[in-house]
Design a protein that fits this description.
CATH topology of the largest domain: 60s Ribosomal Protein L30, Chain: A
Number of domains: 2
Structural class: alpha+beta
Radius of gyration: 21 Å
Number of helices: 7
CATH architecture of the largest domain: 2-Layer Sandwich
Number of strands: 5
Helix content: 40-55%
Order of helices and strands: HHHHEEHEHEHE
Largest sheet: 5 strands, mixed
Strand order of the largest sheet: 1-2-5-3-4
CATH class of the largest domain: Alpha Beta
């Protein structure tokens, strides 16, 4: 049985590691910082559970995931979406916290001041919808964005309507709409220069996130 001194020493050392980890996060993105801090907190929890290297490493692994797992199904979905979007300009990636993200620009998704889905977006959403009804542990978020043309009173509801259009399309293809969260960011999160037509086209987009939690959380 571990002595109190041994447990205290492990806890203090782990706490110090978390402090060092947090201090080194200044140059990280928000997602990377969250994952790194999650790893540190997880390691601390692992140390509290068991005074051994395996427990600490296990805790770090859980913390780094931020509650999401990158399963075989998620890897398969990423590969499917990469094939479905090849050559379209759609960016498919695994985020630092194990979400699958699709960044879909306006030449695929929406025209200026419109939120009706373009024909080119339909096969991408069709592919995305496939198999999700049999994956109850997955969560879906759709974020709409606009360029800087127009006022907030136009852009803010427009960005939400774009996300809602994608949600409704997926719901019509047997994806439970209650699993889909939507949000609109208006023109506040540009990824390109709004002073050029090309930049505005990149900013006029939707982002779709797919995330899976472990079955034990349900």
């Amino acid at each position: 049985m571990k002595t109190m001194t041994s447990m205290t020493r492990t806890f203090v050392l782990s706490l110090g590691a978390v402090a060092v980890l947090v201090s080194g996060c200044a140059n990280m993105s928000d997602a990377q910082r969250s994952a790194a801090i999650g790893a540190g907190v997880g390691a601390l929890a692992g140390a509290a559970i068991g005074d051994n290297r395996q427990a600490t490493l296990a805790g770090a692994g859980v913390g780094a995931l931020g509650g999401y797992i990158w399963s075989t199904q998620m890897a398969k979905k990423k590969a499917e979406m990469e094939r479905a979007t090849a050559g379209t300009g759609v960016d498919v990636m695994q985020t630092a916290d194990n979400q699958l993200r699709l960044n879909i620009p306006s030449d695929i998704s929406f025209d200026t001041n419109r939120f009706d889905i373009k024909p080119n977006l339909r096969p991408i959403l069709d592919q995305f919808a496939q198999g999700l009804s049999s994956q109850p542990n997955t969560e879906i978020r759709i974020i709409g964005h606009t360029d800087s043309t127009g006022s907030d009173s136009i852009n803010n509801p427009l960005s939400i309507n774009r996300a809602a259009s994608a949600r409704d399309y997926l719901a019509a293809r047997s994806v439970d709409g209650r699993r889909i969260q939507i949000d609109g960011r208006g023109s506040y999160e540009p990824i390109a220069d709004n002073n050029t037509e090309r930049g505005r086209a990149q900013n006029r987009r939707i982002e779709i996130f797919l995330a899976e939690r472990s079955a034990s959380r349900y």
